[in-house]
Each structure stands twice: as structure tokens, then as C-alpha cells.
Amino acid sequence: VVLATFFFVPHRARWVWLLAASFYFYGSYNPLVLAQLLLSIGVTYWLSLRIEAETEPTRKKRWLKTSIGLLVANLFAFKYTAFVNESVRSAFELAGLTYPVPEFHILLPLGISFYTFQLIGYVVDVSRGTKAERHLGIFALFVMFFPKLVSGPIERGKGLLPQLHTEQFFDSARVASGLRLMLWGLFKKVVVADQLAMTIQAAYDKPHEHSGVVMIFATWLFAFQVYCDFSGYTDIALGAAETLGYKLSPNFNRPYFATSVGDFWKRWHMSLSNWLTDYVYNPLTKTKVSMKWFYWMLCSLFITFVISGFWHGAAWTFVLWGALHGTYLVLAIMTQKQWRKVHERLGLLKRQRLHLRLKIASTFCLVSLAYVFFRSNTTADAFYILTHFHTGWTEPFSGLKELVRDNRTGLILGLCGAAVVMAVDWFEAKTTVAQVLAARPRWVRLAVYYAGAVAILLFGALSGPRPQFIYVRF
Amino acid sequence: MEAAIPSTSQDNAGGAAAVLPKPAVPSAARGLLRLFVEGVLLLLCAYATVAAFVLFVPEVNDYHRASAMKHERLAALPAPKIVLAGGSNLAFGIDSAMIEAATGRKVVNMGMDGFLGVRFLLAEVEPYVKASDLVVIALEHDSYVIPIEGNPDNQLAIVKANPGALEYLTTQQKLAILKASHVVAHAKVDRLIVDFSQTVQQKLLGIESKSQLAEHVGSFAGFNAQGDLTSHLDIRYPGKPMDGMDLRRAAIEPVARLMHEFEQRMQKRNVTVMFSYPPVAEPYFKRYRKNIESIDAALRSEPGAHVPSRPDTFELPEDLFFDTVYHVRREGRAIRTRKLVDDIRATLAETTATGQ
């Protein structure tokens, strides 16, 4: 409906139309959280103008700190209060004390982590000299633009705001490209992620009942589930925006073909990685501290990844997931020379292809290992899984058979779908599928779209309870 | 999906735009219309493929073909007859000949599939019953968990095998079938994959799977003239019978209301309705005794309802069952039918005495 009418609405009124669609989209989830979002937008808008207007650096900094403080406090209040309460309760119980505050739950506004980071990035940019947005409606749309509101990408003002001011003209090739991207995202979500979800859940909900082999298999499956789920969402978001003429930031670039964990983070959730680099890691490394810069750089790196983990979810499992990635990177930097020597001795540097493949495989294993924390329901579960990886190797198939018993076909379809996604990723190292399709006759393109639609209808998990997008929770 | 009409921002910004009248809105309309038409055509083709899959990939077996045969018998038999309405517990667990011999009335066993939904199971019987007929309703306890409207997958299967069954479906049910066609197609994909893996397993290891056995048994050829399935009677199922549904999720009141409304309509036509229970394997019965007793209480709540036996009358040892906790084999079928005959006799005697 939004697309069908968008190009008929006069340019000066389009922001109203898109904002109304975003209001509807967000408000249909829960009108109460809409009020909270509007308050955040209003306050940030006003503060950003104050920051821009202020010429005195100390005062400017004060306004900036107030803005960031308010936004972080808002995020903390909604997302982390209950978690802190429970953590303090556990600490009290460990010490044998009674904790007086009862357990409580707060309604988590959809996409709060995403739009909070976007708003923080915006006020920091304004304090660094970027022009603040004067038009409150456009500013609200910059935050609320419905394709990316709940799970990103985390946009920057300089990327999206000028686009929202520019008149977008209808371009059938671009609309078709957007629809194609949405179709691909849907395929990833319903044919791969949702088909694999049931098997993974069966393993992770009762890790004590499964052997190490089974948990390794489930973790490996989860690597594909989370990738197809999140990149599927992103493709749908990017595609929806593209149909309207807007270009959102890319979030993925073939992450499972990364050759190191550092490289992985340049390819996975790129808008978050860039945000963390610009607004956490870089400022941290520039902070004056008493230790040597090299060690402080490593500390900054580690802190950035812990923050990244904490941003994902209010649970120790996410913190540990982030910390593990931070540890990987710190160790990689510290042992860079030694690794090079090892590779030299093994003769890998002369065998470039094998070397590359080994690096891709080892990175994938390290990333998958960290997913144990990401997916586990509790830290106790995660440690149990990690400490029992060695079990079940004498009879590996009996446990696996038991795990897949109730969803054998879903697993087969999901794995086939994952193979297609990985093949496309592999292929896109040289050229994009979009470019290849564009060079083909029209009927070939239509046949591909038709095949995609049929695959979604026939092979997708479209019946029964549908798992929500994983990153919507964050 | 791609229109050939160039109308990019570059075009509009170029020199040509200054000469020609600005065609932004009309070209957008044409382009969108073209995209829309192509999109709809593409979706229609995709759905046509799904429909072809649903129609041309054969069902798991020809079990549902028995529906047409049962409807023919139901329409042909004169009153007074006995009509057995319910799910597969009746198909697997009734010896109609024994009932005919004991009561002197012709029997039609309409029991096919509980997933068709209670509304359908009653609707397919209603037009054909006549004054002085006896309708025996014996629903699986799962029927209180399954939605009243039934499962579109199963309804589609029965309509495919017996197009006449379409007239017993409500418009809402027909629409649900249309909406669920891709789910049915997906279920067929699932089955093809399972079949393929089982065939490989059978060829390589010589193992016949449990589901293959059940599928083989549930065929049209296995039914007798009265509508009883007989192909499973002497086969011992490898392993334990499959559990029924979690009866703690049962929504008893709407189903009981539907059955009582049916009973009232039948009373007006001088047809007797008797409520009975399916045979149930002991462990399952014990686990859900409370829920099953609630079902019984709901059925008895209407004054004058004929419910001669309690549900535990049909609680039987597990080794008398075939593939599910509701499907009995030969010995179980004989026990269950004998008990049902007693109930039918009692009900008929009662209705004769009260002049109903």
C-alpha cells in the first residue's frame, strides 16, 4: 500500500505519508511504546539543536553528555533494569542475604537498542560539526523509517537524512531490484532460518539431554539460522526502502567467508561494527590513560566487544559472547607474529588457496563456538555445553537421529536452503547475482523470481507458530 | 517485474526533461501498474504450481476414497438404520456386522478421520438421516482439542477423493482450504522427502518403517461394505501406539454445544442421537482421566441426552491397540463393539418405551 501510493503523493507531503506508515507499523505493536519513542525523538531533536547552537566547547560537551546520558538512561531503564535487579538478587543470594525487591518485567520497546544507538550517533555527529536536522518531521522519519526501525541497519544522519529531503522518482528497475531483494530475504527467513529453528530449539532447550556431538551439530545449524534470519530481515528492510527510492546501509558482506574474526566483524552486522568503531572504540583509544597505547588499544577493543555483547541482550550470555569475541581479537593481535611463523613452517604461505580455506574454516569454527553463549538460555547451560563437547562421539548418529526425529524434513529443507544461500555468497565474491540477472534475458529473470516464489511457498515453514526475527528481541 | 519505461532520477534531471513535459506521475502509474500486473501474474503462476502439486501428487494412500462409498450407503439405506458418526476410532474399531446381527438394523459406519472437524462429521450425516434412525456419535477425545472447523489439509484430501463432500463444508472451511493449499503442498513435500528416505532405508537395510505400515493398512481396499476398516485387524504394530493429544488443552464446551444442537435438530425429525466414547488405551486414559470425565459431564449436561456408558467402559489394555491409542485391533474391536451393542440396545429400548 505504501509503495503503491508513495509516488503519487507530492514530494513535500511524502515524509508525512512515510511517517504515518511508520506510526502505524510501530503503533500496531504497542501504542504505549510509541509514546516513549516519540519522547526520545522530541528530546533528542531539541538537544541536537542546542548542541549545534552552542559555540562554547565546554557547554557543547555538556549538552552532548546530557543527550547521551538521557538516551542511555532510557535504554537502561527499559532494557536492563530487570536484568540488574535479577543480578543483584543472585549476588545477595550467593552472600546468603535476603533481597527485598521482587522480580519484575518491563515491556521492551521494539528496536530500542537500534534507535538509541542511531540517536546517540546522530548527536555525536552534530557535536562534531554535522548540520543538525531542522525539520522535526523529517527527523522523526529518520528515526522511525519503518523498514529499518525494529532491527536496523543503524543509519547515520549524513547517509539517510539527505535522501529523505531529496525527491525520489519512480524507477521500475530499482523497484524490481527492491522486490527481488525482499524475495531473497523472505527465502532466507522462511526456507532456512525457520526450518532450522525447531531442531536447534529442541537441542538448546534441553542441553543436558543431548550429547556433545548433538550440541555441536545444533550450534553449527544455529550459525546458519542466525545468519539467514538477520540477513533475511536486513534484505527485506533494504529491499522495502529501495522500492521507495531510499538506500539503506548494507549490513552483511558474506560473513562466513571471513578469513579472521577481525574480518568477520567487517562483514557481519556492519552498521553496528562501524557504529562501535566510530563512537566507542575510536574515542576510547584517544582517551589519555597511564598504560602504554598498545595495551590500552587492546583493552579498548575488548571493552568495545563487551559493550557489543551487552547491547545485544540483557543477559550474561550475551556479555560473555561479546567478551569471547573481544578475547579472540586481542589474542589474534598479540600472537600475530607467532602465527605467521607457524604458517611459514607449515608451508601454508606458499599454498595460498589452502591457506585461505583453512583461515575461513577456522574463523567459522571460532565464530560458531561463540554462538554457544549467544544461543544458550542461561550461562550455566552454555558452560555445560562447552564442557561436554567431548561426549557422544562413540555413537554420534544415535543422538543426532533422536534430535532430528520430529523435524527431519524441516532440517533437510533448511540445510538445502542454507547450501543455496552459501553458494550465492560464494558466487558473489566475483560478481553479484543482481548483475548476472540484469545481463540475462527478461524471461530468465522472471523464471528466477518464479522459482523463488515457488520455493518459499513449497519449502518454507509457513504453517504453525512462526518464529519471530531473532534480532527483533534486541 | 521490470518495466522497460525509463523514468529514473537521472532522466528527469537531464536535458530532455527540460524540453519534454515532465511525465513523472503518468510514467510512475504505468510502471507501477506494469509491475503490479507482472507481480500478480508471477504469484498466480506460483500458486498454480502449488495447486498442481496439491492436485497431482498422490495422497499418502487412498483411505479417503472410502468417504464416497460411505455416503452412497448412507443415502441408500432405508430407515430405521444405525449411523455411526465420528473419527477414525470408528473405522478401525467397529464390527458393523455384529451390530446388525444384534439389532436387526442396517449399519453405516461413517467414521473416517477426526481431523475433518466435528462440524463436518455431523454435517455429512445430517441430510441423510430419517425418522426412527439412530445416530451414534463417538468422537475421539482429541476432537475437543482439534478446532471444530477441522484441519484444512484433511478436508482437502477428502474433497479430492470425494468431491461430493464439498457440500458439507461451510464457506469459511472452503476458504480455509484455499488459504491452506500451500501448507498442504508443503506437507506433500515433507512426505515425499520422508518417503524417499524411507525407501532408501528399506532398500539398503530392509527396514519397513512404522508410518509405511500404517499407510499401507489405511487403504480403500481395506474397508468392508458397511464402512469398517479391516486391513489392520491381525497386524501387530511394531512399538507402542502413538499418543493422542494433550487433553489439558481441550475446549469441551463449544464441541458439546455443537453436538447438543445437532441432537435437538435430530429430535425434531424423530431421530435418536446416542453419545458414545472411543476405545482408549489404558495409560493414555489414566493420564487424562479428569479431562475425559469433564467431557462426559459436558455431554450429560443436557437433559434427555442419551449417554448410556461412562468413558472408562471403553478403556482397554494397550496391547489391544494398533498404531494409535484410539485404533484397536481384532480383539479390541470385538470387545468395544460388544459394549456398544449393549448401549445401542439400551438406548433403543429406552426410546421405544418413551415413544420417541
Describe the structure.
The complex is a heterodimer of chains A (474) and B (356). Chain A has 474 residues and is mostly helical. Chain A is 72% helix and 0% strand. Chain A has 20 helices and no strands. Chain A is globular, with a radius of gyration of 24 Å. The two termini of chain A are 28 Å apart. Chain B is of the alpha/beta class. Helices cover 52% and strands 6% of the residues of chain B. Chain B contains 15 helices and 6 strands. Chain B has helices at residues 9-13, 15-19, 24-56, 66-76, 88-93, 96-103, 118-123, 152-161, 171-179, 181-205, 210-217, 252-268, 282-287, 289-300, 330-354, and strands spanning 81-86, 106-109, 134-138, 272-275, 280-281, 315-316. The A-B interface holds A 3-4, 7-8, 167-176, 179-180, 245, 408-410, 412-413, 442, 445-446, 449-450, 453-454, 457-460, 462-463 and B 1-5, 7-9, 11-12, 24-25, 27-29, 31-32, 34-36, 38-39, 42-43, 45-47, 49-50, 53, 180, 182-183, 185-186, 189-190, 193-194, 197.
Query: How would a textbook summarize the main sheet of chain A?
Result: none
- Computed over alpha carbons, the radius of gyration of chain B is 26 Å
Strand order of the largest sheet of chain B: 2-1-3-4
- Residues in β-strands, percent of chain A: under 5%
Q: On the 0-100 scale, what is the average pLDDT of chain A? A: 91
Q: What is the global morphology of chain B?
A: globular
Low-confidence stretches of chain A: none
Element pattern of chain B in H and E: HHHHEHHEHEHHHHHEEHHEH
Topology:
The complex is a heterodimer of chains A (474) and B (356).
Chain A: H1 2-6, H2 11-27, H3 31-53, H4 57-94, H5 112-127, H6 136-144, H7 157-165, H8 172-205, H9 212-244, H10 261-267, H11 270-286, H12 293-312, H13 316-334, H14 336-345, H15 352-375, H16 379-387, H17 396-404, H18 408-427, H19 433-438, H20 442-459
Chain B: H1 9-13, H2 15-19, H3 24-56, H4 66-76, E1 81-86, H5 88-93, H6 96-103, E2 106-109, H7 118-123, E3 134-138, H8 152-161, H9 171-179, H10 181-205, H11 210-217, H12 252-268, E4 272-275, E5 280-281, H13 282-287, H14 289-300, E6 315-316, H15 330-354
